[in-house]
Write a structure and sequence with these properties.
Blueprint: E1 13-17, E2 22-28, E3 37-38, E4 43-50, E5 53-57, E6 60-64, E7 69-72, E8 78-82, E9 89-96, E10 104-105, H1 133-171, H2 174-205
Antiparallel strand pairs: 1-2, 2-9, 3-10, 4-7, 4-9, 5-6, 5-8
Helix pairs in contact: 1-2
């Protein structure tokens, strides 16, 4: 299947929105200043493609130009300003993971505003449109229960395979060690897939509280 190609000179929107990552091409208008905020769970990566922007992250300010990037880690307060008065600054940015609430306002000092659950349509994610609150709640609870079951199974696998790993070390059985590691990895993979499913159900459900 063909994949989509995006051109930063003409695209100004999110190009991927999942619980694992939100990625977008972002055009800041001349003189535009974004609000101070942080992300409760996500790291945000910024890469300047055109223009010049001032980044303030945790009280430290740097000016970045084309080809330069910076990162605001989880809970780090950050703000971006387009320094050009007569032309846009264009950047690629990503936030990972992307879990509601996606932004926490930081109007001054270390103060945190109340959580704001932005509607999915604000991120070009229309997957939940047409679903009622009852169905979304049911999906969320099913995903939560599946995660709990998967987590218990994963914990059991880790315990059992740890014993096999230790036995392999004692007996010099390299094949047993590799097998234990691979089984542990498969269980962790399944756990993360279940977690992503819960995150997806939550991202679809949480913003509806704004409309009640």
């Amino acid at each position: 299947m063909a994949f989509q190609v995006y051109d930063y000179r003409t695209t100004n929107r999110n190009v991927l929105v999942t619980p694992e990552i939100r990625a977008r091409l972002y055009r800041m208008e001349p003189g535009q200043v974004d609000s101070r905020h942080s992300h409760d769970l996500g790291h945000e990566v910024f890469l300047i493609l055109e223009g010049k922007a001032e980044f303030t992250i945790e009280g430290h300010t740097e000016v970045l130009g084309p080809g330069q990037m910076c990162i605001a880690l989880v809970d780090e307060i950050h703000q971006v300003r387009n320094l050009l008065p007569d032309q846009p600054t264009i950047m690629y940015l990503s936030v990972t993971p992307h879990i509601q609430p996606t932004h926490t306002g930081r109007p001054q000092d270390r103060e945190r505003t109340a959580p704001y659950f932005r509607a999915n349509r604000g991120y070009d994610d229309l997957s939940a449109e047409g679903l009622g609150i009852e169905e979304l709640l049911e999906n969320h609870l099913e995903a939560a229960e599946k995660l709990a079951v998967t987590a218990r199974s994963c914990a059991l696998v880790q315990s059992e395979m740890a014993k096999q790993w230790e036995s392999g070390l004692t007996e010099g059985d390299r094949a047993a060690i590799v097998d234990a590691r691979n089984v542990m990895s498969d269980a962790i993979y399944s756990l993360h897939k279940s977690l992503y499913a819960l995150d997806s159900a939550w991202n679809a459900l949480a913003p509806l509280g704004n409309d009640e």
